[in-house]
Amino acid sequence: MPKENMTRYAILGLLASGCTxxxxxxxxxxxxxxxxxxxxxxxxxxxxxxxxxxxxxxxxTGDGDDRKMFVLTSDGEAELGxxxxxxxxxxxxxxxxxxxxxxxxxxxxxxxxxxxxNQHAALLRERLDMYQMIEQSIRSYPGTxxxxxxLLTLDYGKRKTQALLEWCAASIQTLEGGKDDxxxxxxxx
Amino acid sequence: MPKENMTRYAILGLLASGCTxxxxxxxxxxxxxxxxxxxxxxxxxxxxxxxxxxxxxxxxTGDGDDRKMFVLTSDGEAELGxxxxxxxxxxxxxxxxxxxxxxxxxxxxxxxxxxxxNQHAALLRERLDMYQMIEQSIRSYPGTxxxxxxLLTLDYGKRKTQALLEWCAASIQTLEGGKDDxxxxxxxx
DNA sequence: GGTGACATGTAAGCAGTTACATGATTAT
DNA sequence: ATAATCATGTAACTGCTTACATGTCACC
Lengths: 189, 189
Hints:
Pfam families (chains A, B): PadR, Vir_act_alpha_C
Strand content of chain A: under 5%
Order of helices and strands of chain A: HHHEEHHHH
Shape of chain A: elongated
Domain Transcription regulator PadR N-terminal (chains A, B): 11-81
InterPro entries (chains A, B): Tscrpt_reg_PadR_C, Tscrpt_reg_PadR_N, WH-like_DNA-bd_sf, WH_DNA-bd_sf
Largest sheet of chain A: 2 strands, antiparallel
Oligomer: homodimer
Organism (chains A, B): Exiguobacterium antarcticum
Helix content of chain A: 55-70%
Domain Transcription regulator PadR C-terminal (chains A, B): 95-176
Number of helices of chain A: 7
């Protein structure tokens, strides 16, 4: 059985939570869901067209705006509801370039490896800062039904990033401890 | 600038660490790198062909085996070395279906959400067990140069998985705490 | 002699990225 | 004027998955 296309549901879901135009959806994903999702205009607009053809959404013929506005049909709502409540089947295998390089790292010096991990840690710290900013912007819109769930997704990112930062520190320690390559076989207990 | 194709380097790297045939490479990835990489035969064989055409690898014309054996050329080794030591530029945005559903979870009951998180936790626990098995198989080949790096990639997965398990527990607590939807506005400090 | 694992490969199709094109509005 | 931003869209391309095709070898 072929996998379902997630882009469909991302768009249906955003439509249900107030995003009306393609441009706005892309913007919302880039700012609020960017820690676990991304999308391109090359996906958004064709998908809106498809969803309209399938009758899951309709173009809002409201007052002449510069944006194309859409709304969910009852079919669209049903489809979204069905998908949301369906269990997620399996963990995706997430390819990781850093780990791939690390796996082959005997082809480089330990210093280079350490440097790379340090750089990775810097990126992780940036990401933590970003989470902090997103959290504040969520907390400044209090009382929303969705806020609880948004904070949960954020917490996911924060915990994961924190754990990876700890991994960076531990790994560098390991590498620095065994830096003297030539003596490595001397006292392995 | 277009992104580099990682499959190239995965194959070059495996070739450098003793995998000689396409079939073996796929098998190694599925068993030893499966916590951060995957690949299909539909990638392996065409890529081997391409790499041979580019002169980065050559077909080993050794004793007639049932497998097609390859070896790295000096160009191939250089290319691998160049890539490995190059810094990884940025963190990939990893799409996460569970979080996407969670983000839209007000369209379902809290119990369904909790159930989904529980199921996710079960998968994470399975994964931890798998890590344990991989670790043992690595430790049973001691003295390899690469073992240090392999254990580092494993540790990455273990720490991350552990953190996500903690997130599952915390999230369920949060959701169970605020389960009585109708009273939610009464005493938010 | 048939079943299943090993081994290599091709082709169709899909999801996603990137680059490009177009027009409207706003700011300097 | 013109530059920048907003907004919608299309087309080419790439990477990857999936399904299929083919042949060998072992084993029962």
